[in-house]
């Protein structure tokens, strides 16, 4: 006998669907799906064999703004009318009496994400890797061509300096973690000063995904993006910051060190980072002359994030069992080094 779906009052949810989502016909067959930042995500198969996906936050007390179902729903619904590949929006429930939390239902997408080189080897033939890479950046370019006001997303976030706010946020993270990590680095401070003193004009405000990577796209059997997923930290901001984040894992002949062998983009057959940036520029018409600034910013931001994680381990707030602390610390150093290298190209 299958276990009851965690976090869902099945009969109440199915009653709500009967009243609010005419495209689906309960009762459902529920199958747990892994991934998705610990949100409780299930595939549901209705009485006619139609597949959909239902998502709600994990049970228990949540941090403010964490696991924001309303934000994800707003983005999926708004972008479904654009060229951005997203799942079909079926319905959103903001009545916690139904199952204890807000939830939404979207279409099921046949596709898989890429987390590492093993996934690439298994899912993407070498002669299809260029296709995948181009589709990945074309989808991002299409997102950055959307006018948020035109699709009802004009209130998604603040409109002032996105990078400036991010620099201040992540610098606070670095400074507050120094004591716990028992580790500081002058480069983190010098780079923060550089970023603030050289803030670029962000141009037209756009929706930024915030975590746009191969792990947050579902690729179909044709190796193109079937859907972009996990929109919960998306906001309004500078599209070039989003682009630089997406570009950073891709190797380039100008790199002074090879990509890590475990990376999904480490296998042969992919275009270079420069080629992908040029394709994005051609598709959007954006000037990328200041791209090294954004590359450096994202490298520095990574250092700040890992520094905070390292501090929590050092303070005993997270179990270190099976964790290579020396490797984690080296990632901080490498990220700062890569940020410095990118600045030299700016």
Compile the SSE list and pairings:
Elements: H1 10-20, E1 29-33, E2 40-45, E3 51-56, H2 69-79, E4 89-93, H3 96-99, E5 103-107, H4 117-123, H5 129-145, H6 162-181, H7 186-197, E6 206-208, E7 217-219, E8 225-228, E9 235-237, H8 239-247, H9 273-284, H10 291-314, H11 325-345
Plain-language structure description:
The protein is α+β, with helices and mostly antiparallel strands and 346 residues long. Helix 6 (162-181) runs parallel beside helix 10. Helices cover 43% and strands 12% of the residues. The model has no long low-confidence stretch (mean pLDDT 93). It has helices spanning 10-20, 69-79, 96-99, 117-123, 129-145, 162-181, 186-197, 239-247, 273-284, 291-314, 325-345; strands at residues 29-33, 40-45, 51-56, 89-93, 103-107, 206-208, 217-219, 225-228, 235-237. Strands 1-2-3-5-4 form a 5-stranded antiparallel β-sheet, with helices on both faces. Strands 6-9 form a two-stranded antiparallel sheet. Strands 7-8 form a two-stranded antiparallel ribbon. It is globular, with a radius of gyration of 21 Å. It folds into 2 domains: 10-107, 2-Layer Sandwich (Phosphorylase Kinase, domain 1); 117-345, Aminoglycoside phosphotransferase (APH), C-terminal lobe (Aminoglycoside 3'-phosphotransferase, Chain: A, domain 2), CATH 3.90.1200. The N and C termini lie far apart (60 Å).
């Amino acid at each position: 006998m299958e276990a009851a779906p965690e976090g869902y009052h099945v009969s109440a949810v199915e009653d709500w669907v009967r009243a609010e989502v005419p495209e689906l016909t309960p009762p459902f067959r529920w199958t747990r799906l892994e991934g998705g930042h610990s949100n409780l995500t299930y595939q549901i198969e209705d009485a006619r064999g139609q597949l959909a996906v239902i998502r709600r936050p994990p049970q228990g007390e949540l941090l403010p703004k964490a696991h924001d179902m309303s934000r994800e729903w707003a983005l999926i619904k708004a972008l479904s009318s654009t060229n951005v590949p997203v799942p079909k929006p079926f319905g959103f429930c903001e009545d916690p009496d139904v199952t204890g939390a807000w939830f939404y239902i979207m279409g099921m997408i046949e596709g898989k994400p890429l987390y590492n080189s093993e996934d690439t080897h298994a899912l993407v033939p070498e002669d299809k890797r260029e296709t995948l890479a181009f589709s990945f950046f074309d989808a991002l370019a299409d997102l950055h061509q959307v006018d948020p006001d035109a699709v009802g997303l004009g209130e998604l976030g603040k409109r002032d300096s996105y990078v400036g706010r991010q620099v201040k946020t992540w610098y606070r993270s670095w400074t507050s973690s120094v004591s716990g990590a028992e580790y500081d680095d002058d480069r983190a401070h010098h780079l923060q000063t550089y970023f603030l003193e050289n803030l670029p004009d962000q141009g037209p405000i756009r929706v930024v995904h915030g975590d746009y990577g191969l792990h947050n796209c579902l690729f179909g059997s044709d190796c193109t993006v079937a859907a972009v997923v996990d929109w919960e930290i998306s906001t309004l901001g500078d599209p070039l910051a989003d682009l630089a984040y997406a570009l950073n894992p891709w190797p380039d002949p100008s790199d002074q060190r090879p990509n890590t062998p475990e990376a999904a983009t480490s296998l042969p057959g992919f275009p270079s980072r420069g080629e992908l940036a040029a394709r994005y520029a051609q598709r959007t018409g954006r000037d990328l002359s200041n791209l090294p600034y954004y590359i450096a910013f994202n490298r520095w931001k990574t250092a700040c994030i890992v520094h905070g994680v390292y501090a929590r381990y050092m303070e005993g707030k997270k179990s270190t069992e099976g964790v290579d602390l020396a490797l984690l610390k080296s990632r901080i150093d490498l990220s700062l080094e890569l940020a410095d290298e990118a600045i030299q190209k700016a």
